[in-house]
Specification:
alpha+beta, six-stranded mixed β-sheet, 7 helices, globular, DNA-binding
Length: about 260
DNA sequence: ATGACTGGTTGGACCAGA
């Protein structure tokens, strides 16, 4: 089973790119982020025509997450994280697909740092960690997939010195990620590539993609019950270089049947 | 080295992204 995560940066504005990627790579499950569309403007028709069942959590202008499943309907198990009644942003959706619990998440960017947005990010990550602990306690196979907006280590950024003060690379944010690994979550891409620089995002500015000036901020975290089934992982880099592409590349894992 | 890119909202410049 192939499970992918893709920050599409506008599901309607880049629908043609999304459909092309679905057709080229045929993931069994696709977690999407940054839909930038309210629920009623999610392109359900074209996605169903492409062979995918879908659930989504939309929002006007910003954020928005979805889970697509090829040839079946994802069974929704949660939308939104507990712990903050004030939080109405669409950043988390979760479903059962093919015997695996799959979460599609879009963590807050957090810039500028310091500031209220950074505080919201830290709080959101703490709520994510808490929910993750509850998922781990069930012993079910789970994957937390999405745009974490976290650069975990120096190996995950083209020039670490230039990102020291950024909300994506702040020590407290990296610590939040490290704590989730301590809880038992397994970073699939880093497991597959222990020493290599593997990026998932390249800015639009200054030909970042052509220069390979990238970041690794899109992650798939596997529960210990799922991690032994990891067969392969990678980034669909080539689609990032196509016309009108998202600034993220899709990240995928291949999981053996359970 | 904080870049001049991008979508969305809206019918202009902004906001937000990372």
């Amino acid at each position: 089973m192939r499970i992918a995560t893709y920050n599409v940066n506008g599901v309607n504005g880049r629908l043609a790119n999304l459909l092309e990627w679905l057709g080229d790579t045929r993931p069994d499950v696709a977690c999407l982020q940054e839909l930038k569309a309210p629920a009623e403007r999610f392109p359900e028709g074209p996605i169903r025509e492409a062979g995918y069942g879908a659930i989504w959590h939309g929002q006007k202008s910003w954020n928005g997450v979805a889970i697509l499943a090829r040839g079946c309907e994802p069974i929704e198990t949660r939308r939104g994280l507990a712990g903050d009644p004030q939080d109405v942003q669409s950043r988390y959706i979760e479903a059962a697909v093919g015997g695996v619990i799959v979460a599609s998440l879009y963590a807050p960017n957090g810039n500028p740092q310091p500031g209220p947005k950074f505080g919201f990010k830290l709080n959101w990550l703490e709520r994510l960690r808490r929910h993750g602990q509850a998922l781990l306690a069930t012993g079910q196979p789970v994957v937390l997939a999405g745009d974490f907006n976290i650069i975990p280590t120096d190996l995950d950024v083209y020039v670490p010195e230039r990102w020291r003060d950024d909300a994506l690379f702040h020590p407290r944010v990296r610590e939040a990620y490290a704590q989730m690994l301590d809880d038992g979550w397994v970073d699939a891409l880093r497991t597959r590539y222990p020493d290599q620089r593997v990026y998932t995002f390249w800015k639009y500015l200054r030909n970042a993609y052509q220069r390979d000036a990238g970041l690794r901020i899109d992650h798939l975290l596997l529960s210990p019950s799922l991690a032994p089934r990891l067969r392969d992982a990678g980034v669909d880099r080539e689609h990032r270089g196509r016309p009108h592409a998202s600034d993220h590349g899709a990240v995928w894992i291949e999981i053996a049947d359970g």
